[in-house]
Amino acid sequence: MKLTKIITEEYETLSEQKIAKEHAPSTIYQTLLGAYQLWLEECTLIEEKNAEEEWGNYAEDIRVSEKYKAASENATHFISECTHTDIFQLSKEIVRFEEHFEFSESGLFLSAIINEHYKRYTDSPYLIHTKKYVHAMNYLGFELDGAEIHIIGDAGHNLGYLMSSGTIIVNGDTRMGIGSFMENGKIVVCGNAEDAIGFKMKGGEILIQKNAGMRVGYGLEGGTITLYGNCGSELGQISGGEVYIEGSIDMSKGPIEESDREKTKIFHKGKQIFPKKE
């Protein structure tokens, strides 16, 4: 079975028209853009605080949490007046800040806006436009809980990080670590994915239409990963869950790395290859 190209250019146009018709832009849009600019500066301060206080091994988690918290607090001031079109338009307009040092973390801001908006209106999908960006946005779908996000373009690192439910569809490629610490939900990537798909993933489903990098399923604890293209080296070190691979597997760095034989199943072209059946 092959995935179809879920988001085509025709779909993109229809979706934009549908969103514009059903969710007209509000007067709050400029406020939203201004809040994003202020958030970028808050992120700079958080980085400076990190450097001063030396947060150590947990620095990455702390700074990401602080940046998401700052975005969520900003969102509560205007989210009741915000529309789907405002969010989509923001994702297109922030390209002008692409050279800002903190731009790569913009997925945290968009995720906070979507999560807060969905809590109030439970209305999906949300469209995010990344097609013409040089630098991909990390952490899109951060802590997603129920909403559906369609990303027109590529996504950066840690797509769907700490996601608990909902759906993310990417009409392009993704960077490393998609579905990390994911508890449930579904991620569909119509292009390629880089390394460490499903790191520490506990449940849910990830589907990749094309190829993946190294360490597919590394640290996987539950859920399902389906890869329709080729798989990079160092497959294994899986604690639980199932991995299905339709393309080739790179064994240049050795065989499948040791995984939990009671809780893990790996299939290649429909045949179970780990643990091998007697």
The gist of it:
The protein is α/β, with parallel strands linked by helices. It has one domain. The protein has 5 helices and 9 strands.
Output the keywords.
single chain, 278 residues, alpha/beta, nine-stranded mixed β-sheet
Radius of gyration: 19 Å
Return the string of H and E elements.
Answer: HHHHHEEEEEEEEE
Query: How many discrete structural domains?
Result: 1
**Basic shape:** globular
Strand content: 15-25%
Mean pLDDT: 88
SS content category = alpha/beta
Question: In DSSP terms, counting alpha (H) and pi (I) runs of 4 or more, how many helices?
Answer: 5
What level of helicity do the residues show?
25-40%
The first-to-last residue Cα distance is 27 Å
Tell me the major beta sheet.
9 strands, mixed
The poorly predicted ranges are none
Can you list the strand order of the major beta sheet? 1-2-3-4-5-6-7-8-9
Number of strands: 9
What does this structure look like?
The chain has one domain (9-210). With 278 residues, the protein is an alpha/beta fold. It contains five helices and nine strands. The longest helix is centred in the first third of the chain and has 25 residues, at 29-53. A nine-stranded mixed sheet has the order 1-2-3-4-5-6-7-8-9. It is globular, with a radius of gyration of 19 Å.
